[in-house]
């Protein structure tokens, strides 16, 4: 039997979520700017800053962002058998604490229903009501296994507002570990725009997306490691977007800094049996292969093992610059680049390439329904 191709990094905004974005006047929002042209999706912090001419208008949003049939067409065009769909950023982070619980349930139910409409083709990562009290978050985590297709949750780097090393998150990590739900850790907030300098805006979204996103993920997961999250929750599973940002490359330096820092403090630092960064990478971390280069895929596979790297596309982001609209048959450069990177990284070792393309996801995320 031919091995299956599974996309673990692919997003959707259910229609009720888009309706909320349409009512908003602050980021995140959806705006009709030019009559006859697609609406614009404005989601990133500062993206509506009028002084940043090149990014101020966000990106066009068409049905590929909310119509699940478009996702299936995209999958068919690119030979993808199964997609693990997740709400796109900024998830539910911006909601008031009173709205978060209800919308989390609605969004998670809606995404699960999308999967139900295409049996065997779709699974899901749910979203958490992170602005609600932690009991509410934990309640939603314990409800998720009742949704037939949900295998984990997607979340950003802010946690409850203080990042992922916040001890207040322990009940959340505990519930996720208990329910065997993988965290898909995905960036959104980037880096302060000052680090990109006064000319940053001249380069469009290149600096925030190519560097801000991966560094944000790297810092967030490093804070989890340093604060002992993986020592307290040794079975926690975290899928890092964009091949872990720069973690595979910097893991050695991180481990060395830990070993040489007399001021690395806190109870976690004193535990004799502190788990090394390498151990965590090979036990708790999964890395997607959304890195667009052979070198990046090899680094991911070296750091975490080729049995822990998983193909992804980032659909519907990064469409072809021209001709995307109405051209469902057209293959996307962002996808073909990732396919090629995997093929080149493993060369004649077809087994490893097939595992990264699908086998790993099926095994690690339990992508069967019987
Ligand atoms: O292009 C972008 O801004 C994005 C985004 O916001 N989220 C994502 O997953 N990919 C690209």
Automatic annotation (TrEMBL):
<dbReference type="GO" id="GO:0005829">
    <property type="term" value="C:cytosol"/>
</dbReference>
<keyword id="KW-0210">Decarboxylase</keyword>
<dbReference type="InterPro" id="IPR032466">
    <property type="entry name" value="Metal_Hydrolase"/>
</dbReference>
<comment type="similarity">
    <text>Belongs to the metallo-dependent hydrolases superfamily.</text>
</comment>
<dbReference type="GO" id="GO:0019748">
    <property type="term" value="P:secondary metabolic process"/>
</dbReference>
<keyword id="KW-0456">Lyase</keyword>
<dbReference type="GO" id="GO:0016831">
    <property type="term" value="F:carboxy-lyase activity"/>
</dbReference>
<dbReference type="InterPro" id="IPR006680">
    <property type="entry name" value="Amidohydro-rel"/>
</dbReference>
<dbReference type="InterPro" id="IPR032465">
    <property type="entry name" value="ACMSD"/>
</dbReference>
<protein>
    <recommendedName>
        <fullName>Amidohydrolase-related domain-containing protein</fullName>
    </recommendedName>
</protein>
<feature type="domain" description="Amidohydrolase-related">
    <location>
        <begin position="6"/>
        <end position="367"/>
    </location>
</feature>
<dbReference type="Pfam" id="PF04909">
    <property type="entry name" value="Amidohydro_2"/>
</dbReference>
<dbReference type="GO" id="GO:0016787">
    <property type="term" value="F:hydrolase activity"/>
</dbReference>
